[in-house]
Input
Amino acid sequence: MFEAIILGILQGLTEFIPVSSSAHLIIFPWFFNWQGVVNTLSFDVALHFGTLIALLIYFRKDWIEIIRTLPQKDGMIWKILVGTIPAGIVGVVFHDWIAQNRSPVVIIITLCLVSVLMILSERRYSNTQRGGIELIDMKSALFIGVAQACALIPGVSRSGITIVAGLTKNLKREDAARFSFLLGTPAVAGASLLELKNLTGSGTFQTDIFTVGILVSALTGYFAIKYLILFLQKYSLRPFAYYRFFLAFVIILSIWTGAAG
Output
């Protein structure tokens, strides 16, 4: 139960803060040698369901407005749908590969690569005219959606790579984050439903542990969304990039010294 609470807090924070939730959910059980249901992809997806709840509650008014754009050819709901397609395809086709490649070495590489992209995107940030999510057209939505699909690789960070993609399309930081979260809602919902289908017929589901993890990740995630958007109104992505480099260094050191487990 203690492990479920810790991982729920980590998921709630790191799903939205661009430091990679999958990296933390894999590294913590690996480092502390936690076994059982908390060290499974099914539990990870259950925690994602908690952050889905946080997304739906926080953006409930936004989603009402988005649904109202359904009759419009270029409505925001269609842009989100287009942006969701790449992750949906990759998630279904490469589900087994993703489940099997939860390696610390993969995480080290992806942590560092996306950190570099964050720093590069920030270098050109002040030299470009920026706008809100109204700038997003179908091509931009698809571009950000492809970036979201890349986040299925552990360590990439869905919020991190999609915010970077949004900055590339000249969005303000806070608006890039807002679209990232809106775009992530159907993707997280789809992944949760896909895994739920497999989970209900397995013997890994433990109601009390899963329920606590979901509730903790939902509560933590709600506040993470709120304060990250406020943070990005004034500050850059660089602190998150530096943290990612630091985490990669800690993982390398742990492997080298044999400290993990």
